[in-house]
Structure formats: C-alpha cells, structure tokens
Amino acid sequence: EDAWVVMKTARAPSNIAVIKYWGKRDEKLILPINSSISVTLDPEHLSATTTVAASPAFERDRLWLNGKEVSVEGERYRNCLREMRARATDVVIESSGKVITKEVWSTLHIHIASENNFPTAAGLASSAAGFACLVYSLAQLMNVKEKYEGELTAIARLGSGSACRSLYGGFVKWNMGQEADGKDSIATQLAEQSHWEDLVIIIAVVSSRQKETSSTSGMQESVKTSPLLKYRAEEMVPKRIGQMEKAIKSMDFAEFARITCADSNQFHATCLDTSPPIFYLNDSSRRLIGLVERWNRHAGEPQVAYTFDAGPNAVMFAKNKEVAVQLLKRLLYQFPPSAEADLSRYVLGDQSVLKS
Ligand code: PMV
C-alpha cells in the first residue's frame, strides 16, 4: 500500500552575468550588495538535469550530483527543501487516485539526482543551473504555485545567488531588493532570448579545473577587505544597471559590449583588490582579452564582448553570426586545439556557426 513513488525531471540552463553579483549583505538569506543582469544560456550546451522523487519508503533526504552521492545536510539544500515543502499542495497519483496532501508532503523524504552537461565549479555557473533546476523540479513534483511573481526565484536564491536568474530565459535582472526577509530580492525577465536574435554566445573552456577560491569565500573576503568593492556596488553598478537595461532594450551592441567588458574587468579588479588577492583569470584569459580589445579597436566599434566569472573560462558575445565565425577562426589560430582536444571545446550558442 505504501509502495508508491512520485517523480519529476526538469532541465535548467546556466546563466552568465554581464553585470556581476559579488558580495552579500546577508549570508544566510543570500542577499546581494548590488543588483545584477545576466543572459541565460542555451540548455543544449550548459544545463543541469534534475530528477526529484518522493516516496514513503524513503527514510531520509538524499542527493546525487553527477552520479556521486553527496551530503544534503548543507544549509543551502536544507533551506530550499524547507521552503518548497512549506508550499506543497495536493498532488493526485494518477494510477491509484491517491492524494498526497500538504500534511503528507511534510513527512515525505526526497531523493534528488542532478547532472550537469558541463564542468562543475569551473566558473561556468554550475550551481546556478543546479539550484534553479532543483527548485523548478520540486515545484513540479509538489505542485507549488507562486503566490507572487518571482517567489520561486527567491527560493532558488537561497541555494545559490546566481541561481535565481536561471529560472527565466533570455535577459534577466536580479533586483537586490530592500526588505530584510529577502522577499523582494527576486529575478525578473528583461527580454526573451528571441528579442536579440543576432547575438551569438561563444564559450572558450580554457580550463575545466575546479576553481581554487569558491565564489562564497571569495565574496566574503572581498566584502571584508576591498575598498574598491564598496565603490563598485554603491556607485558603479547602479549606474551600469540602468545603462545595460537600455542597451538590451534597444539592442545597442556597442553599449552592451562596453558595459559587459568594463564590468567583468572591474569585478576581477575587486578580486585583485581583496586581501589576500584572488586570481581567477589565467594567461589564456588575458590573451583572449587582448585579442578582443585589439579587434574592437581596429574595427572602430565593438564586434565582440567578453566576460569572466569566478574562473578563467571566457564567455564571449559576438555581434552577429558573421562576427562569430571570424571569432572562432581567430580563436583557433591563436589557441590551436591540442591533439586530444577538438572543436567541441568551443561551446556555441548557435550550432550553425560551427558548420559554416
Ligand atoms: O551564485 P554564486 O555564489 O555562484 O556566485 C556567482 C558569482 C559570479 O558568477 C562571479 C557573478 C554572477 O553574477 O554570476
């Protein structure tokens, strides 16, 4: 009689910030010191796929990441699970007609299995895809309906700040919010992906090694020690958020590229301004920056934008498909693939570019 199991599977893409989130004002609730803006990536290339299951036969919550069991006792998982359980509503099991009520949900244990189709913790926002996917799949499993728009993004935020932005596609803003409880620290969509179809995203995986300084501890150190971070969060980012929203709305690539590169460079400057300094970029990252900067200067106006998260891998935005093809050629010339590597090192937002 108790031998039933219900499960759901969902997929959520990663996102890459063009105005970075760096620094928390509340560590527990994961409330940021500045708003941020990101582009959600194509799930074909960079996403998490998560299956969640519930059964009275499960004795405790359990979690498998990329096939390996890991602890689910961390505060971040616990917070997401608690908030989702609190919002569970009736679910009818089709085969038996049995109803899982809110009360039953509060007693059920959950098994979670999640897989990434890209390197974990290499600065490609794997936690963003993972927690967005966890919250979304639990919402499907437990029939959770948002009471206000963005409620689920606030729960994903409890898992990983950047995860709140992965619940929407296209161009997304995470409002830092003002409330102490974080209710208004939510993500909203600025524009659908189809709004700016010319834009091509190219990711150069320079290294799939795990980063040495996690974003969590890196941020803590920066908040404690970097005077530049305070200036960035209070003076620079508020200005840039407005400019970036405008650039996205009007598809102004020159402006989009200018702000994206400047913000990435300033974020890495705050890392360098942290004591002891944090280095996320490596020699290849810096060579890539040089290549794009020289190209843009010679062209007279920006053709390509680059941005780097907490790792050496580059995410680049090409103005259009023709530029993307040019960019790939230049990358392959400057960084010849090694014998064991191949073109798949370059993950594309648009497969047709690779074919041409
Ligand atoms: O959400 P976290 O803790 O993985 O932090 C992400 C921080 C950056 O990726 C560097 C910037 C961002 O806005 O995504």
Automatic annotation (TrEMBL):
Coiled coil: none annotated. Performs the first committed step in the biosynthesis of isoprene-containing compounds such as sterols and terpenoids. Residues 201-356 form the Mvd1 C-terminal domain. It catalyses: (R)-5-diphosphomevalonate + ATP = isopentenyl diphosphate + ADP + phosphate + CO2. Keywords: ATP-binding, Lipid biosynthesis, Lipid metabolism, Lyase, Nucleotide-binding, Steroid biosynthesis, Steroid metabolism, Sterol biosynthesis, Sterol metabolism. The chain holds residues 6 to 361 of 426 of the full protein. It comes from the Eukaryota. It is an enzyme of class 4 (lyase). Residues 12-187 form the Diphosphomevalonate decarboxylase-like N-terminal domain. This is Diphosphomevalonate decarboxylase. GO terms for biological process: isopentenyl diphosphate biosynthetic process, mevalonate pathway; sterol biosynthetic process. GO terms for cellular component: cytosol. Its EC number is 4.1.1.33. GO terms for molecular function: ATP binding; diphosphomevalonate decarboxylase activity. The gene is LOC112283603. Belongs to the diphosphomevalonate decarboxylase family.
